[in-house]
Amino acid sequence: xxxxxxxxxxxxxxxxxxxxxxxxxxxxxxxxxxxFGLNPSEAGQxxxxxxxxxxxxxxxxx
Length: 62
Description:
The longest helix is centred in the C-terminal third of the chain and has 21 residues, at 40-60. The chain has a domain at 37-62. It has 3 helices and no strands. It is globular, with a radius of gyration of 12 Å. Helix 2 (28-36) packs across helix 3 (40-60). It is mostly helical.
């Protein structure tokens, strides 16, 4: 567990999964709801974290 806030672990898992996708799903929120049970707000948070992960990976590979 990363912290005591409910749902954070699933948001992080979803963000990592999303960041690994070569082509992210066109409709992110429904895909993350189906895969991880996230609500729209949590899916948005996961998408933002995923963007940060992808950006960090691009910077590290340069």
